[in-house]
TrEMBL record:
Belongs to the ABC-4 integral membrane protein family. FtsX subfamily. Residues 198-313 form the ABC3 transporter permease C-terminal domain. It holds the Pfam family FtsX_ECD. Keywords: Cell cycle, Cell division, Cell inner membrane, Cell membrane, Membrane, Transmembrane, Transmembrane helix. The chain crosses the membrane at residues 45-65, 194-218, 247-272, 293-312. This is Cell division protein FtsX. Residues 80-161 form the FtsX extracellular domain. One of its GO terms (biological process) is cell division. It is found in: Cell inner membrane. The keyword Cell inner membrane applies. Its main location: membrane. It is a multi-pass membrane protein.
Length: 324
């Protein structure tokens, strides 16, 4: 009975010892794989640069899509509805309409332009001031410029508000020019689809590049792997250094891509700021956030680890020690 108890304690203690030494072995193999990369600097640097550039392109496209969406949101909030009043509408009726429209929950601001003011502005802007003096009566109607709220400034909501305002008895015609906004949204969706397609292709190239690099490393260590299998090393023990090599490739490649995107955004930011100053705008190009940078590095690690895992599973199992 005591022998069974002592054997149980030994097996339990040996299991705990293996469990405690497992993280140490992983750390040793991770550091050893980093040393293997250091011993082949040219191949390592070239692979990291290829990974960084491959991931920097879709990240840069994502950056421009993100900034374009911010600009389009600003334009959405600045959309206006123009209401042309009937020529027979009196000044008092027009002011009553202004008060009614301002009470709409979807309306943020209402600006009234009288017929006289509209004719005066048209004389200045058109350049036909003297010719318009020969008109018997003012052909221009009074106008209301209605600014929707942020929620009502979207295309569908703005159209619904236009239909609602057009039912007012003083309104002859309402106009909301959403054609340019619809085109902008269509272009934004097209760019997003292009970014997604390019990102998928480049992600596939990252997996293939890392897989091929790990394959060459395995072939270079073919004899050593065969000897390790002869002395009883398991496939998982042999695979770990190569998997950690893939992780290191992903870490360095992701960091390089973040640096490249940040430098590109910083360089283009000055040119864009100079351009926006000409249009009296304070738009600033927004770069990668810390969250986006961490996501990019994590994504690079996943892709590189996937490529190394596929290569390791395929090639290490194929290496068998000679019977001799």
């Amino acid at each position: 009975m005591s022998n069974i108890h002592s054997s149980g304690l030994k097996s339990r203690s040996s299991f705990l010892a293996r469990l405690l030494t497992l993280p140490i072995r992983h750390v040793q193999q991770a550091v050893g794989s980093l040393g293997n990369l250091w011993r082949t600097p040219f191949t390592t640097v070239m692979t990291i640069f290829v990974l960084g550039i491959s991931l920097a392109l879709p990240a840069t496209l994502h950056l421009f899509v993100k900034n374009a969406q911010q600009v389009s949101e600003q334009w959405d909030s600045a959309s206006q509805i123009t209401l042309f009043l009937k020529l027979s509408t009196s000044e008092k009726s027009a002011q009553n309409l202004v008060q009614r429209v301002s009470l709409y929950n979807e309306v943020a601001d209402v600006r009234y332009i009288s017929a006289k003011q509209a004719l005066k502005e048209f004389k200045v802007l058109s350049g036909f001031g003297q010719s318009l003096e020969y008109l018997d009566e003012n052909p221009l109607p009074a106008t209301l410029l209605v600014t929707p709220t942020q929620r009502a400034s979207q295309a569908e909501a703005a159209n619904a508000l236009l239909a609602k305002l057009s039912k007012e008895r003083e309104v002859e015609q309402g106009k909301l020019d959403l054609e340019w906004l619809t085109r902008l949204e269509a272009m934004a969706r097209l760019i997003e689809d292009i970014v997604l397609g390019v990102a998928l292709l480049l992600c596939l190239s990252v997996v293939l590049i890392v897989g091929n690099t790990i394959r060459l490393a395995i072939l270079n260590e073919k004899d050593a792997i065969a000897i390790m299998k002869l002395v009883g090393a398991t496939d998982s023990f042999i695979q770990r250094p190569f998997l950690y090599s893939g992780i290191w490739y992903g870490i360095f490649g992701g960091i390089l891509s973040c640096i490249a995107v940040t430098l590109l955004a910083w360089y283009l930011g000055y040119a864009i700021s100079d351009l926006t100053e000409l249009y009296q705008s304070n738009f600033q190009l927004e770069g990668l956030s810390i969250r986006e940078a961490l996501m990019l590095i994590s994504f690079a690690i996943v892709l590189a680890l996937t490529g190394s895992y596929i290569s390791v599973r395929q090639h290490i199992k194929a290496i068998e020690p000679n019977a001799d």
